[in-house]
């Protein structure tokens, strides 16, 4: 297989990624975040278009640009902690917290945190899931920004926001690299009174 290099930064690109970059028409911004997301059809089950951000995370300039754009939206809002949803929200959230000069709070799935926790159960398409944080993860009135890689129905983010608020946090908003507008997540979080910031939208998912 011939190794193809990214025109922006020289790193090696997968064939899928190259195809997406080549597809871009017209003037392309220095870093095309959308083109750095890999789409895997029918994963993890038929009918799902899985939006894989590992290709974006592996691209040094793309990762930096994504974190900078996420940070700029809430840069003047006095964010004290960034709460990242397991697991891709940890990667983005750590970098975002560093850039905003904030602390980091892991929002984890059931049974993963070692200290005393509080949790919130939420509905999935089939069954339920649960998010948990440590009881002392946020202080009363502490200004918290939620982050995850992607918002679809908004169920996970809504559960995490409720949990943070139950713990006393003031939730400033929710940030995502990707939103799937057709699934209504943004409206759901905005209806809870929180702004939503997403860098890329994939319509029709
Ligand atoms: P939701 O609770 O419906 O908003 O789903 C959001 C969570 O599921 C996030 O943690 C995403 O990482 C994951 N997710 C949902 N749909 C997709 C998708 N099409 N591609 C990648 N991740 C997804």
Pairing-aware structural class of the strands and helices?
Answer: alpha/beta
Question: How many domain modules?
Answer: 1
Please tell me what the overall shape is: globular
Give the topology string: H per helix, E per strand: EEHHEEHHEHEEEEHEHE
| Order of strands in the sheet with most strands | 7-8-6-5-9-10-11
Q: What small molecules are bound in this structure? A: adenosine monophosphate
Helix content: 25-40%
Second rung of CATH, namely the architecture? 3-Layer(aba) Sandwich
Instruction: Give average pLDDT, whole number.
Output: 90
CATH hierarchy, class: Alpha Beta
Query: Nearest-angstrom radius of gyration?
Result: 18 Å
Largest sheet: 7 strands, mixed
Q: What's the β-strand tally?
A: 11
Terminal CA distance = 32 Å
Number of helices: 7
The fraction of residues assigned to DSSP E strands is 25-35%
- Which residues form runs of ≥5 with pLDDT under 50? 13-28
CATH topology: Rossmann fold
Question: Can you put this structure into words, describing what you see?
Answer:
It is a single chain. The chain has 205 residues and is an alpha/beta fold. It has one domain (4-201): Rossmann fold, CATH 3.40.50. It is built from seven helices and eleven strands. The strands form three sheets. It has a seven-stranded mixed sheet with strand order 7-8-6-5-9-10-11, sandwiched between helices. The longest helix has 14 residues, at 60-73. The radius of gyration is 18 Å and the shape is globular.
Write out key terms for the chains shown.
205 residues; binds adenosine monophosphate; 31% helix; seven-stranded mixed beta sheet; globular; 31% strand; Rossmann fold; alpha/beta; two-stranded antiparallel ribbon
């Amino acid at each position: 297989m011939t190794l193809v290099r990214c025109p922006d930064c020289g790193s090696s690109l997968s064939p899928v990624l190259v195809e997406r970059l080549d597809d871009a028409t017209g003037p392309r911004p220095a870093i095309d975040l959308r083109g750095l997301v890999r789409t895997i059809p029918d994963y993890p089950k038929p009918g799902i278009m899985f939006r894989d951000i590992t290709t974006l995370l592996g691209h040094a300039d793309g990762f930096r640009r994504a974190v900078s754009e996420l940070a700029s939206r809430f840069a003047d809002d006095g964010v004290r902690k960034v709460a990242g949803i397991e697991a891709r929200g940890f990667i983005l959230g750590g970098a975002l917290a560093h850039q905003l000069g904030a602390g980091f709070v892991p929002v984890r799935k059931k049974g993963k945190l070692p200290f005393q926790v509080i949790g919130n159960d939420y509905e999935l398409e089939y069954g339920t899931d649960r998010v948990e944080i440590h009881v002392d993860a946020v202080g009363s009135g502490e200004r918290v920004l939620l982050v995850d890689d992607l918002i679809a129905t908004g169920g996970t983010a809504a559960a995490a926001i409720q949990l943070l608020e139950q713990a006393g946090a003031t939730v400033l908003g929710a940030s995502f690299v990707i939103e799937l507008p057709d699934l209504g997540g943004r409206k759901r979080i905005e209806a809870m009174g929180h702004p939503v910031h997403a860098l890329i939208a994939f319509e029709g998912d």
